[in-house]
Amino acid sequence: MLRSRERAILILGGAAAALILLVVFAVxxxxxxxxxxxxxSSLAERELAEVRGMRPELTRLDREVRPKxxxxxxxxxxxxxxxxxxxxxIQEAGFPPSAVTLKSAGTRDGEYFSEESFDLxxxxxxxxEALRLLSRLENGPLPVVVRTAQFKSRYDDSRYLDGTLRLxxxxxxxx
Length: 175
Prior knowledge:
Elements: H1 4-74, H2 82-92, E1 100-109, E2 113-125, H3 127-139, E3 144-153, E4 161-172
Antiparallel strand pairs: 1-2, 2-4, 3-4
């Protein structure tokens, strides 16, 4: 049998081992979890403050997008192809078919809209005609977005331009 002194040492050693195991397996992971959660909480608070700061800009962008979205919805499901509709709109703007080349460049699907891309090449136009074309495409009856516009002066007469436009024709996505 154990003497009382040995028994006390054994009990104190067991208590110390239990305390060490408790600290290693319960307290340290708990402290690490609290630290991680507090960092995540402060990061979430900063991101929320950024989103609240962007609210006026988001509402302004929403006001700008609504008319275009209404035009997209109004021109959905026509019986005529998109290429034909764009060609007709460009000819109505006063450009002869010989000065215009329109080619399809693929599609992109977004969350609310799909976009069919076209490359429009226009030869021998004036600066004023280029501005009118850009304005008519962006603000006209068709839901068209001008993604890029590159114009170069003609080598034979600097009063005229040759241009390449990347157009996006917007359509509602099927949900």
